[in-house]
Amino acid sequence: GESVGLHLPTLSVQEGDNSIINCAYSNSASDYFIWYKQESGKGPQFIIDIRSNMDKRQGQRVTVLLNKTVKHLSLQIAATQPGDSAVYFCAEVPSGFNFGNEKLTFGTGTRLTIIP
Amino acid sequence: NAGVTQTPKFQVLKTGQSMTLQCAQDMNHEYMSWYRQDPGMGLRLIHYSVGAGITDQGEVPNGYNVSRSTTEDFPLRLLSAAPSQTSVYFCASSYGPLALAKNIQYFGAGTRLSVL
Fold first, then answer.
1. DSSP state at residue B30
2. How would you classify the pairing of strands A62-67 and A56-58?
3. pLDDT tens per residue, chain A (116 residues)?
């Protein structure tokens, strides 16, 4: 969306192709991860989540992969559509007490553009 | 179901002015949070609340006040606006803590604030 600017990594994908968006997280103690989609002028929207005891989780057209060894998370979107154009970012929650979601930490995001 | 509603959508303030950003949710969510989103940075937590009458500071609370007199409303007050508070502000709510019982955080559409 307009709130993230020129420094965002960008990815352009032809409509119908698959896309992979990557995220490196910093806290090895994180045990819950979320992917959000943010369309221009809108708030973030939950896409899919994964816990640290899993290495893969699938949703509708989306798959999240977690590699704890290298602290890496990826979001795969299959058969991309124009409506998939947005900024995607990951968020992490470390293990332990998280009283009010205050430990949720967001990445800066990747701008995905679907080329018709 | 309206979800999370933020008003106003846009606001321009002069340095030193005060104002209140409104946030309301109709999902009977206990948890509510305020974030700011700046170019090149992830969402940062300003204040959060885990129920009516209970609030706490997040990562960047200086210059902002909150209160939670009802479950539905969580206004954010700028006491004396500064140019550094130019940002996009998002309100979010969830039924409970993330990573527990499939709680999802829902975001409003944001308030775009410019302080001159």
1. S
2. antiparallel
3. 333 334 578 999 999 999 999 999 888 888 899 999 999 999 999 999 999 999 999 999 999 999 999 999 999 999 999 999 999 999 998 887 777 788 889 999 999 999 99
**Which residue type sits at A21?**
I
Min Cα separation A33/chain B (Å):
8
Return d(Cα A45, Cα A36) in angstroms, integer: 5
Task: Fill in the amino acid letter for B98.
Answer: L
> Are A3 and B110 a contacting pair at CB < 8 A?
yes
Q: Are B80 and B72 in contact (CB under 8 A)?
A: no
Which chain B residues are within 8 Å of A105, Cβ to Cβ?
42
Nearest by Cα to A68 from A108, A27, A104, A99: A27
